[in-house]
Backbone:
């Protein structure tokens, strides 16, 4: 924008009225009628300019938008009443007297004034330049500036002129909206976390309730079986002694009465006394082995059924693993469509019993070993095991520093990275509908990490298998 330096844009303008009525015209001057026409035209122009000046002055003084003119170095040259009101001053004169350097006195951040000046230099104008400034009361307000560079005919910058709008209320509203949005987002995230926790808690409660009921049932059945089995087992040793005595007596009869009565001889042949004397002790011994096996199974059931322990107790980790394997043994045996699953129990030397929730830990063992068996069964159906390769579960226990480590690995088909990253998510499962709930690994993770302050991790390689690693602190 170019102007004549002697023609200000704001304020009162004066024009010199030029007339020659007081001087005699030269001999070569226009005639009097022509001069009269010129004077009439000039008078009309002056009247029109005065009217425009009055209109501009009214607009300048009464508009609600603050109008300003400043030098590039920050000196305020001119201001209208609206600008004084926006900044909190009594009048434009009061504003001009008090505000001598807008960069240091007006701008909250003086660097914003420098940014304003650079934009004016590069572009020649600014639009909607929002900045914080100081109100006369000391309060910080927001304004939006629009300005242009005014140059002289030689192209030199004379000053900046433009207008200011108070946008404090708008900014406060925007800030309130942003704060409300942030609160809404935070509340939404909190609700999502709460919902997830509710799902996890619900699933854990449902699973715990089921397992608690199962544990009570198993414990009751084990108790009922245990009594008669103990009765049988306790009487087998005397029965073996009685059988041995009776067989000894029969042998003495055979020795001293080699020719028995015909009826006795007929009955002896009918019952095959020789075979009976040989096989009866073996039968009793087999019964003794069988009852011992039943007692072991009952003991395993009783150990595994301790799912409702409410306090941590010293627990034999190896016994828990053995009990779980005992219950899963039918699934490990060979079937018509796949061979036996080999279990390698590589137990290390642990520093005595480990303080933990024994029943919950057995639940984790059951979930991990059950998933390993499922993976091996699936791999078998897909022809994964060929040649000398057999389905295998490797269980290893050891201590590392102040932690006991339990590794459960299989040589199935492994998992993709996408599946591995989600295996501990609640309700996530790769099993067909009706065969999996997606709760086992999620609950196992919570039991290890939250109940025992340990860690449960998984590593897997496609085509080679997966390994779950449980780490429990020795000092709970």
Residues:
């Amino acid at each position: 924008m170019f102007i004549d330096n002697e023609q200000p844009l704001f304020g009162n303008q004066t024009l010199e009225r030029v007339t020659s009525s007081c001087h005699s015209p030269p001999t070569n001057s226009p005639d009097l009628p022509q001069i009269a026409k010129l004077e009439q035209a000039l008078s009309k122009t002056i009247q029109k300019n005065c009217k425009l000046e009055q209109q501009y002055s009214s607009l300048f003084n009464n508009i609600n938008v603050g109008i300003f003119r400043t030098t590039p170095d920050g000196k305020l040259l001119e201001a209208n009443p609206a600008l004084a009101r926006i900044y909190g001053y009594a009048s434009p004169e009061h504003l001009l007297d008090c505000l001598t350097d807008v960069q240091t006195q007006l701008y909250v951040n003086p660097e914003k004034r420098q940014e304003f000046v650079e934009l004016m230099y590069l572009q020649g104008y600014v639009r909607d330049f929002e900045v914080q400034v100081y109100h006369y009361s000391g309060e910080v307000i927001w304004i939006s500036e629009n300005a242009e560079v005014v140059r002289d005919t030689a192209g030199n910058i004379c000053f900046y002129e433009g207008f200011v709008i108070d946008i404090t209320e708008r900014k406060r509203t925007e800030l309130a909206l942003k704060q409300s949005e942030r609160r809404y987002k935070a509340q939404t995230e909190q609700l999502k976390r709460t919902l997830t926790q509710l799902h996890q808690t619900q699933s854990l409660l449902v699973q715990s309730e089921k397992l608690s009921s199962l544990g009570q049932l198993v414990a009751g059945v084990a108790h009922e079986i245990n009594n008669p089995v103990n009765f049988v087992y306790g009487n087998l040793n005397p029965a073996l002694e009685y059988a041995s005595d009776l067989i000894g007596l029969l042998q003495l009869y055979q020795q001293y009465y080699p020719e028995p009565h015909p009826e006795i001889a007929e009955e002896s042949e009918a019952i095959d006394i020789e075979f009976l004397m040989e096989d009866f002790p073996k039968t009793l011994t087999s019964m003794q082995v069988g009852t011992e096996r039943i007692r072991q199974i009952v003991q395993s059931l009783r150990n595994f059924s301790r799912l409702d322990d409410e306090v941590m107790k010293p627990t034999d980790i190896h016994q828990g693993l053995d009990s779980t394997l005992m219950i899963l043994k039918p699934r490990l045996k060979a079937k018509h469509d796949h061979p036996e699953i080999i279990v390698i129990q590589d137990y290390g030397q642990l520093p005595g019993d480990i303080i933990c929730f024994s029943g919950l830990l057995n639940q984790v063992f059951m979930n991990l070993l059950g998933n390993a068996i499922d993976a091996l069964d699936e791999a078998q159906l897909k022809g994964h095991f060929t040649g000398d390769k057999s389905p295998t579960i490797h269980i290893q226990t050891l201590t590392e520093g102040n932690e006991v480590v339990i590794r459960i690995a299989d040589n199935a088909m492994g998992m993709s990275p996408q599946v591995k990253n989600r295996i501990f998510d609640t309700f996530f499962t790769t099993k067909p509908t009706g065969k999996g709930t997606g709760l086992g690994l999620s609950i196992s993770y919570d039991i290890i990490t939250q109940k025992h302050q340990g860690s449960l991790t998984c590593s897997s390689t496609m085509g080679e298998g997966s390994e779950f690693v449980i780490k429990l602190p020795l000092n709970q």
